[in-house]
Design brief:
mainly alpha
């Protein structure tokens, strides 16, 4: 990937000689055979020079989470199901927006959880540290709290019209 040079007005940063300008984001897997992330992002420590490149990096994060994180896929599927059910039940625009926002909150927190876990793993490597456990557990707890809230919100909005629909079909 080739990045454009930063604008002349952008601040320049001194890079210690111990750091390479081409950062390899590869992290070895437990069997050391191939890295988890194969791409290197040259100058990734700098601000992306274009808005499109910023969106590309953000989408890469979402794609990474979707392809590697089971819970992110589960939250995506359940959120999609809840929104689809809301459309099928003809919920109001506000009710659909609430379901969309709560689902998006869960997914955003799952992305943050993945980021925190990755940074903690990078920091402590293969060793155990009580503070690393606390950080990872708290991040996972934030996802859990938001997921419970999303289920309660979606349930309160979806169950009454769903029961009404079922009763009208049965009678």
């Amino acid at each position: 990937m080739v990045l454009q040079k930063a604008e002349p007005s952008a601040p320049s940063f001194a890079v210690p000689s111990s750091l390479s300008m081409s950062q390899d984001l590869s992290m070895p897997t437990p069997n050391q055979s191939e890295p988890v992330v194969k791409r290197s992002r040259e100058l990734s420590w700098r601000i992306a020079p274009t808005l499109m490149l910023s969106f590309k990096y953000a989408w890469a994060g979402v794609s990474y989470a979707f392809s590697t994180q089971r819970n992110f896929r589960i939250h995506t599927a359940i959120g999609t199901l809840a929104i689809g059910l809301g459309v099928f039940l003809h919920l109001s625009a506000v009710e659909l927006a609430v379901i969309c926002l709560t689902s998006a909150l869960v997914m955003a927190l799952e992305l943050l959880n993945t980021a925190i876990e990755s940074v903690v793993d990078l920091t402590v490597k293969q060793s155990y540290h009580e503070l690393a456990k606390i950080a990872k557990d708290c991040a996972a707890g934030a996802v859990l709290v938001s997921a419970i809230a999303a289920v309660l919100v979606a349930g309160s909005l979806l169950i009454p019209p769903l029961l009404a629909r079922i009763q009208s079909v049965v009678q």
